[in-house]
Amino acid sequence: MIPDHEGSLVSQVRAQATPAACRRFGFTLLLGLPLAGLVWLCVLRFTTGRWVWPVFAGFVLAALLLGVSALLAAGWARRLYIGWHTVTRAIEALLTWFVLAVLFWLVISPVGLVRRRKASAFKSVPGKSYWQDVPPVKDPSRYYRQF
After folding, report:
1. Which entry of 14, 22, 31, 130 is 20 to 30 Å from 142 by CA?
2. Using the 8-state DSSP alphabet, how is residue 5 labeled?
3. Residue 6: what pLDDT?
């Protein structure tokens, strides 16, 4: 998300950091971090061939520390919410622009250059145009009931 005329990225996140949003964020941390730990546990199992339980335990411990403290202490939850969302929105903005640039330069531009260079290879009609003459419609009111 690129900051607009309404203020900076941090001020936008601060405006959204209501007590209800901070509580939801605490519940999200409490449930989401153990799930992320479970995913990492499975990824490490398939890449290393063994279960790496300390990684999962670290995610669960982080969920308990951050999630419970965010639910119990409103001031801490607000600071955590603002910090987390500011960082993730900055990453989102950078990745969005990076992915769009890569997509344009590595996919769209080469396809356009190839199609321009070999335009005749993509034509399936022997001729200069795809235009087909169509006889005029006898009743113009048919335009109002096309189907």
Report:
1. 130
2. T
3. 56
